[in-house]
Amino acid sequence: MISCSICPRECRVDRSKDECGFCGAGRDAVVSHVCKHFYEEPVISGSDGSGAIFFGGCNLSCVFCQNKSISRRAEGKRFDAETLADLFLRVEDSGVCNINLVTPTPHAYVIAEALEKAKHRLSIPVVYNTGTYESVDTVRMLDGLVDVYLPDLKYADPDIAVKYSGVKNYPETAFRALEEMLSQQGRCVIEDGLIKKGVIVRHLCLPSNSKDSLALVDRLSSYLGKYDLRLSLMSQYTPEFLGDGAVRFKEIDRRITGLEYGRVMKRVTDLGFEGFFQERESASKRFTPDFDAEQFKKSERIEIDEF
Predict the structure, then answer these.
(1) Can you tell me whether residue 247 is helix, strand or coil?
(2) What are phi and psi of 303, to 5 degrees?
(3) Where does residue 221 rank: exposed (0-12), middle (13-18), buried (19+ CB within 10 A)?
(4) Which pairing describes strands 77-79 and 275-277: parallel, antiparallel, or unpaired?
(5) Which of 23, 59, 170, 304 is the most exposed place for a label (fewest CB within 10 A)?
């Protein structure tokens, strides 16, 4: 990582010297929290919970990010490939359904090396839970190491991507990365109600932006028939995470309406997608982790010595 090009930002910093680019990540992977996550899609959380490993830092800067307290800075426990591989095995030992790598992109090199060491000893799937601002080469590096891709496909319009996430080339980049994910996975495999292999594309519907959501699912529909994918349409957007940005982004300083969400749901149904719809009641801060709350620290965290 002498000249980092792990993601489309291509900051070109020397991470072998612990230099940091936009995402804030240096030489090692940074893990902020490890917990059993029960609020993912049913095929991911199951009844035992998903083994969520929340990495610090992010290569996006979404104004509405619900994980802002850890995504805006790469802070937490540092892991090299050897110790991260050991963490994967201990998370599996906690009895979860899968290893769920949340915001893994800044740490993909270390993650890939750790999976090379641990994959043959894991008996549960590895989920790559990403904002989809990925380089194709990085996704190719993960071929055979990741079992389930969980890309959050955010925008069809590049201007909206600039406005809310600070990246100019998001749609073209994200769709190229998605196609590589789909080409790797083949068919989606779900056994006993749990996903073992495949791609679930997430899309979060934003208030005042249903036209962009419609354009996104229209474009995504071109993959139907060619690839086996599932779509998870989410209505959980909540404006509490805007903070000071509420003044600047007034159009999203509210929850999505039933009319807006219903319009996108109808298009998804008409196009013949398989997957999941989220109830609008999920648009509440109580369904998102509060990483600083004592209740979160005591009740949901997986007991790992380092944390």
Answers:
(1) coil
(2) -75, 100
(3) middle
(4) unpaired
(5) 304
- Mapped onto helix, strand or coil, the DSSP state of residue 304 is coil
The string of pLDDT tens digits covering residues 245-290 is 777 999 999 999 999 999 999 999 999 999 998 765 544 445 455 5
Provide φ and ψ at 203, rounded to 5°: -145, 125
Q: Give the C-alpha separation, 220 to 109, whole Å.
A: 28
Q: Which token pair is 23?
A: 């995402």
Contact 163, 140 (CB under 8 A): no
CB 32 within 8 A of CB 56: yes
What type of residue sits at position 116? E
Nearest to 62 by CA among 154, 159, 169: 154
Which secondary-structure segment (H or E) carries 213? helix 210-220
Q: What is the pTM of this model?
A: 0.91
Backbone angles phi, psi at 64, to 5 degrees: -105, 15
d(CA 217, CA 121): 38
